[in-house]
Amino acid sequence: MRISTHTDIDAPIDHVFAGVSDFATFERRALREGVSVLRQDAGQVQVGSAWDITVAVRGRDRRFAAALTAMTAPDSYVVTTQSDGLIVITHVDLVALSRSHTRVTVAVDLVARTMTARLLVQSLKLAKARLTARISARVQDYAHRIAEDYRKSR
């Protein structure tokens, strides 16, 4: 199953890429929302960087292993997350529309490897419109923050 959304940001591609690849900010935001995030390596985030994530889902702690599997600055990156038979592949792609406008596309692919994961993906398919709207709203909110940050820095 694939969920995809895109938005345009009034900022150059380099600035947008710096914002959408600021993994330290993502870690802090997750911690504020009650998600346990533990980075496996130190230093600058690069291909191969990994995180152990624990989040309460439906009253039970679920463990995820996330890794940055591809990165082509300032165009795209891919994060692959695995947990109990479910693989989530997140693609973040940027396209420069002009010197000061950038389109960000976020696509999330869910791949089930077990029967339990297939049931989960099937239930998510039923709620795909609502799930897509939630992801789109988060992407729009983050894009607005990046644009505001760019306006303040000029």
Major sheet: arrangement of strands = 1-7-6-5-4-3-2
The CA-CA distance between the termini, in Å, is 40 Å
CATH class, named: Alpha Beta
Number of helices: 4
Structural summary, described in words:
By secondary structure, the protein is an alpha+beta fold. It has a single domain, classed as Alpha-D-Glucose-1,6-Bisphosphate, Chain A, domain 4 (2-Layer Sandwich), CATH 3.30.530.20. 36% of the residues lie in helices and 43% in strands. It is built from four helices and seven strands. The chain has helices at 13-20, 23-32, 115-126, 128-153; strands spanning 2-9, 36-39, 50-57, 60-72, 76-83, 86-98, 101-112. The protein has a seven-stranded antiparallel sheet. β6 (86-98) and β7 (101-112) form a beta hairpin. α1 packs across α4. The termini are far apart.
Short description:
The protein has 4 helices and 7 strands.
Keywords:
single chain, 154 residues, 4 helices
Helix and strand arrangement:
Elements: E1 2-9, H1 13-20, H2 23-32, E2 36-39, E3 50-57, E4 60-72, E5 76-83, E6 86-98, E7 101-112, H3 115-126, H4 128-153
Helix pairs in contact: 1-4
